[in-house]
Structure formats: C-alpha cells, structure tokens
Amino acid sequence: MTRSARRTRRTLRVAGAGAAALLALSACSSSDDSSTGSGSSASASSSDKLSGTVTVFAAASLKESFTALGKEFEQEHPGTKVTFSFGGSDSLAASITGGAPADVFASASPKTMAIVTDKGDASGTPATFVRNQLEIATLPGNPDKIASLKDLTRSGLKVVLCDKTVPCGAAAQKALDASKLKLTPVSYEQDVKAALTKVELKEADAAVVYKTDVNAAGDKVEGVDFPESADAVNDYPIVQLKDAPNAEAAKAFIALVQSADGQKVLTEAGFLKP
C-alpha cells in the first residue's frame, strides 16, 4: 500500500471516530435536556399543585378568623382563591345536602355536622378543631347592670337569642335549662352574628352569643361571663365534602386550620382548643 493510501485511511478513521464522539455527545446532551425539562416540569407541577377556588361553608362565628386564614392560604398557594359562605350551621348543612357545591364544611356543633354526614355528603370523619363558649353581650358600659344569666329574665329587658336550631341557640337553651330559667326573647335570630347585631344597633339590651363574637365586636358591646356557659361548650367539627370540586385544596385548607398557625389565629380570636 502506498504512503498516500495509508494516510487517507488514517484520516477516514479519525473522522469516523470524531463523528461517533459528536453523536454520543449529542445524544447525551439531548438526554440531559429531556431530563432537565422533565424535572423542571415536575417541579412546576409540584409548586402549582394547588390552584382554583376552594369553597368553604362555615359557621357565622368563624367569620373573622376564617377570613384571616383564607388570606393566609391564598398567600401560601398563589393561584388559589378561598370563597366563604358564612351562616347558621343548620342552614349551611341543609344547603350542602341540597346539592350546593362546596369543598369544606366547618360547623358550630356535632349535631349540625351530623346533618351532612348522615346523608353521606362528607369525605372522611369530621375532626373537632376548636371549641367555643357562650357569653352575654350587653350594650357598651353594661347600663342595665347585667351580671348573670338570671338577670336576663328581668321584666322589660330586651334580650335576643339565636334560634334553637342553631348551635348558639341550642347551647343557650341548654344553659337556661340547667339553671331552670325561662326566658322569652324579643326575637330568635338565624345565626350568632345576627343576634349580636341587634345589640350593636341598640335594638336589644343583651344577647347570648359566643365569646369570640364579643371579642370581634370590640367596643361595640360589653361581655359578661356566666358560670353556666361551662356546661354548654360547643365543639366545632370540620370536614372535606364528598363531592368537593377542589378536593386537594380542601385538604390543604383543613390542614391549615388544624396547623399551629391556624390554631394560633383561632385561639387569639377567643376559641378554645379542642
């Protein structure tokens, strides 16, 4: 073989090796890009896991604390929106069993929660996340000098109670029965906020509401403790609903409520630990 032919074959071998190396590098690079893209996508998917609206039906007494927790939830999970429907637990439960779309139900009593669970509309077992105790709300400065539950039975005093079907009304009736007291209010209200508003507007002299509502009202009312309230403390259960449109966000919101941060917001509002 001539020197020229040997040089040509050596050149072809080098070129072939170079091409193979380039192909290997290209394949490796392609594989790396694919892996990186997949990892990036998975990471984005993880961070964007929660999105959309989570709808929470909650007892009226939870309005201030849950509104604060809703804002915290939205900050922790960008792209989510928490919407609330606050009201009497019994009417909220009836709405849920009637087909109203919601993700979470937080009730002011196990009895009203049972309306939902008995119909099979809950996912899992409700968990008690706080408790609440009654207090008498009077006009600022307590001009009628109300000092006990018995004082509410005085003639001429305009007193408001929650309806007996509402947890705050059932608890008030329990306290009255335990004290063997009879009280005829000027009105029965459908939720605790409505009862409190009657006093805030000076349409009533007093109302039996929750400590949390007295705290939330600030200087608009004055609170009076009464010992019988210790025998009528309400447990508040929370549950994800079976047909929750946003089940993952529902779980996350319940987790926030039960977390140390959530419990801090609730205890600062006056709720008792479960």
Write the layout of secondary structure elements.
Elements: H1 3-47, E1 52-59, H2 63-76, E2 80-87, H3 89-97, E3 104-106, H4 110-117, E4 122-132, E5 134-138, E6 159-162, H5 167-178, E7 187-189, H6 192-200, E8 206-210, H7 211-217, E9 222-224, E10 234-241, H8 247-258, H9 260-268
Parallel strand pairs: 1-2, 1-3, 6-7, 6-8
Antiparallel strand pairs: 3-10, 4-10, 5-8, 5-9
Helix pairs in contact: 2-8, 3-4
Low-pLDDT runs of 5+ residues are: 1-47
Average pLDDT taken over every residue: 87
- Helix/strand/pairing class, anyone? alpha/beta
What about the largest sheet?
5 strands, mixed
Signal peptide: 1-29
Protein name: Molybdate ABC transporter substrate-binding protein
Family: Belongs to the bacterial solute-binding protein ModA family.
Organism: Streptomyces phaeochromogenes
What does this structure look like?
The protein is an alpha/beta fold. The chain is 46% helix and 21% strand. The chain is built from nine helices and ten strands. The chain has helices spanning 3-47, 63-76, 89-97, 110-117, 167-178, 192-200, 211-217, 247-258, 260-268, and strands at residues 52-59, 80-87, 104-106, 122-132, 134-138, 159-162, 187-189, 206-210, 222-224, 234-241. It has a five-stranded mixed beta sheet. A five-stranded mixed beta sheet has the order 7-6-8-5-9. The longest helix has 45 residues, at 3-47. The termini are far apart. The model is unreliable at 1-47 (pLDDT under 50).
